[in-house]
Amino acid sequence: MKLLKTKQQLRAWRKEQSGPVGFVPTMGYLHEGHAELLKASVEQNDVTVLSIFVNPTQFGPNEDLDRYPRDFERDQALAESLGVDAIFYPSVEEMYSTTTTLSIQPGAMATKLCGASRPGHFDGVLQIVTKLFHIVQPTNAYFGQKDAQQLALIESLVESYDFPLTVHRIPTVREQDGLAKSSRNVFLNNKERKEAAVLFQALQHGKELVESEARTDDVIRSVKAMIETNTSGRVDYVELLSYPNLEVQENAPLSILATAVFFTKARLIDNILIERVNAHA
Predict the structure, then answer these.
(1) CA distances from 262 to 203, 266, 268, 277 (A)
(2) 183-272 CATH, one of 3.30.1300.10, 1.10.3720.10, 3.40.50.1000, 1.10.510.10
């Protein structure tokens, strides 16, 4: 397995490859969710590239950039065990060696869900993803459904700007009690870790309400109440929107029910997708 730390090294290595190239961009501290992305890429491509880069442009002034968990040696061992062919592990200086006044503005889709309380976050996400796509030049790229808003925006970016690659959605990987796997779960104390399982339970309850044709406002109110009653967390949002367009639409064919909850040292997100068989497009 190759360890590549500069764009020049990666581009030189990439020229030597033939056949489909799979790509999994991450910020490291890999867990089973990342492993599923990597397994899918290894299975479906001749070679797989994993990037590990904690991207500063997607963190706000008071967010957890400095304490975001990192363990490169562990990540490297896991990647090698899964059959990854190359790790791209650049420094901040390598990725942002020049300053620019140009920016990517994701538009209305980025003002919903996480974007409402994290202005500029998705600008940074799309900036780094665009750079990585150009550097790696993958045939296929793999993203987890847990970050559903990010995934929708990346799919829109690829479609709107004709990137020559295919984006693959990989279902959320969960703990036995339903908590979505996340690098930030390590920041939960024991009490919060037990409470965090309620997020998925509340979303499942909301899904049942949607399927029983409850109104959107009633679904949101019920899910929020369940989280607030059974956890010490502070609800950032509960939203029910069409997917992937992220618009308010009663009875959409495919909807996302999503939540974000602040605990003492972690902000957790989760979501489920809901298909309506008899929905009106």
Answers:
(1) 16, 6, 6, 34
(2) 3.30.1300.10
